[in-house]
Structures are given as structure tokens and as C-alpha cells.
Amino acid sequence: MQAIFLGTSSAVPTVERNIVSIVVGTSEGQLMFDCGEGSQRQMLYADLNPMKLKAIFITHMHFDHIMGLVGLMMTMELLNRTEPLTIVGPSGLRKMLDFFERELYMNHRYELIFRSAEPGTVYKKGEVRVEAEKSMHSTESYSYKVVQIKKKRKFHTEKAIELGIPQGPLWGKLQMGETVEFNSRTIKPEEVCEPPARPITVGISGDTAPTDSLVEFFTGVNLLIYESTFSSDLQDRAREMLHSTSIDAAHVALKSGAGYLIIYHFSERYRDVKLLESEAKSVFEKTTAARDFMKVEILENSIKVEQLKLRCAGKDADNKVGTKRGRSF
Known about the structure:
Elements: E1 2-7, E2 21-26, E3 29-33, H1 39-45, E4 53-57, H2 63-66, H3 69-78, E5 85-89, H4 91-103, E6 112-116, E7 120-125, E8 128-134, E9 142-148, H5 157-162, H6 169-175, E10 180-182, E11 185-187, E12 200-204, H7 212-217, E13 223-227, H8 235-241, H9 246-256, E14 261-264, H10 274-283, E15 287-289, E16 294-298, E17 303-307
Parallel strand pairs: 3-4, 4-5, 5-6, 12-13, 13-14, 14-15
Antiparallel strand pairs: 1-2, 1-16, 2-3, 7-8, 8-9, 9-12, 10-11, 16-17
Helix pairs in contact: 9-10
């Protein structure tokens, strides 16, 4: 999997940072988590095609996490999207979407599938599922976890040949973890395949104060993306607003046994977030402060962090969102 940060700022944008939004690329397509104002513009710079989004997950109903959603949905309509789009979020999100569809005459032609967030699995497609857990904020809010299970196992052809299993559909079924019948014998995948690969998991906190339930929810994730609105000297302010500090984020990563921590959702008071990063590292060494357009590759046993090479915004840019693919006015 990979995670691309389209925005890392809380509440208001800064010169360096846009409002929060994260796109997670999986084996089953792209998933977006929160959609702050300007997110679709950030997608253009990051060379991400909105038509490839399979689902959008909203953590809570504060303006900085949802104000880019309606514009993004309308862009998909203008580009003649036909594939269904799943949106998951707090129950109030459905009312907001209904209002904009009615008052702005959106009338999108693609199917919109809305699911109210609740603890448990809220989305599933092929090898990927997304789970939700309640977080602690000033309104109904949820954290999410993306789980990608690689079903296809490493196959040992020599073992299959020794057992006399002919090459063909049976090999494919065994490689996908299915038990098969051949010559009146039951053959299990373990006889010809390696054990299934460990799932790759990414946790995304949204806005929240630290809680024991979230520590449990994020147990063992390969990558934890956790809000860090304030530095430790504003601990009282964080508690008052039900946010987390950089130290809070690090303790959640440590207690949950996360493989790596990315902190994000920084208050506009921090032009340079090195202080937040260093504070978190003092508790949990494997920490990086997110930057807009940072790309994180999540492999089975490692994490790779790099900055995207952005598309040019000038006149020579190859703008993929154009009238040739959509409707013109």
C-alpha cells in the first residue's frame, strides 16, 4: 500500500500546508480519508486521478475535514463518472450530501453508496477492508484502519508435481488458499504453498484525544497516521479541545506496537513542525512529520518515505481534468 498526504494542516491552510486529506493506494484501488478544502486541486498536483477513487471516508463533521467533498463529487460528475462511489462517515454527513444535491442541483448520474460509520468493518472490496472505531472528539468521530490481505500465496510447483496435481485451475485455487479435491483426495493449500502473507495495515486517527480503545484498535499496524495538533507545552489546550499532542501520538504508537508513526494535522501556529517531530521521536523513534505531497510506501517489512515530484501548474502542464473527457459549458 501507499499513503499520499494531500494536506497536513488543521483548521486553516498555511503557505506550506493545505487542509487535511490522505489518499491510500491499495491493491483494490484508491481510498481517500477526509477531504479538506482544495483537496481536488492537490490531487492534480500529485497526479492523482479522482476517477480512480473507490471510496471516501470522513472522520467527523468539522468543516476542515469535509469542505472539499462536494466539489470533488461534482468534478467526478463533470468527468462523466459511471462507477459507483462509496462514502463512509458520521450519520450527519448523509443530511449534508442530501442538502447539496437538492440545493445545488448536483444530480450526479453515478451511484452514490452512503454508509454510516460504526465500530467494525465499514467497507470491503476483494483483498481490502476498512474498519472503524469511535474516537474522542467534540463531535461524532471515527478512526479508520485499512487492512490489505494478500490472498495469493507463494506456490511450490515441484510439490504440486510430486502430488500429481495437473497444472491448471487446481493450482490457481490452491495458490488462492482454497482446499481442492483430486483423485478422491483432499489437498490443502499448506501442502503446496507458503503460509499466507501477513496483512498490511494502516491506521488513521482523525481528530481525537488519546484513548485506550484506540491503542487496542491500532495494535500492530504497519503504519500509524496520527494527529498532532499541538506540541507538549499546550497539553492543557489539547485536552480542552479533545486533540492530541505530538507526545500523545508517540505514546499511542508505542503502546499499540505500531511499526512506524507519521504525525499530521498540525496547528497553523507551527510553520516549522520539527519541534513536533523531535518531541514524538523522543518517545517513539520511528516517527516522521508529514508534509504535503509526501508519499509513504508500506511494504511487508519496511516503510519508504519520499516527496512526490509535482506536476507543473503552468501552461504546458498536461491537465487531465479537461473538457475532452467531461462536459463543457
